[in-house]
């Protein structure tokens, strides 16, 4: 099982069996299963808020491409509480003051995207927890098809 991570991925997860590749959609997949699994990683609530706000049209195009994958996930390295309490949950005062959306709006938009694009959005309390889950998820997908 070889994990592929997008070359544009900033601060990537560190898996033993991984290499960089140019992925059209998502941040992670498996070699040989590039048409089956798509994982989009969100490292902070500010990144997700940007995708659901100013970058929403681009993000919807990515979700549209994700429809082709039977296994599609958005993995968040932060809690749902961080989304619900946005912008108070922002890491910097500057980001909190610049925020133009509420947590209530982000929750609504996430629910709309999950129902429209049938994508699994999962929240974890830390980067390590997210990475542990993704590694297990990848093993299950690999076992299913290999």
Structural features:
146 residues, alpha/beta, three-stranded mixed beta sheet, three-stranded parallel beta sheet, 6 strands, 44% helix, globular
Overview of the molecule:
The longest helix is centred in the last third of the chain and has 19 residues, at 127-145. A 3-stranded mixed beta sheet has the order 2-1-3, with no helix packed on it. It has helices at residues 45-52, 56-66, 80-84, 93-98, 103-117, 127-145, and strands at 3-6, 18-21, 28-30, 37-42, 71-76, 120-123. The protein has 146 residues and is α/β, with parallel strands linked by helices. 29% of the residues are buried. The termini are close together. The chain is built from 6 helices and 6 strands, in the order ββββααβαααβα. 44% of the residues lie in helices and 18% in strands. It is globular, with a radius of gyration of 15 Å.
How many strands appear in the DSSP assignment? Answer: 6
Assembly type of the shown chains? single chain
What is the chain-wise order of helices and strands? Answer: EEEEHHEHHHEH
Which blocks of ≥5 consecutive residues have pLDDT under 50? none
Short structural description:
Helices cover 44% and strands 18% of the residues. It contains six helices and six strands.
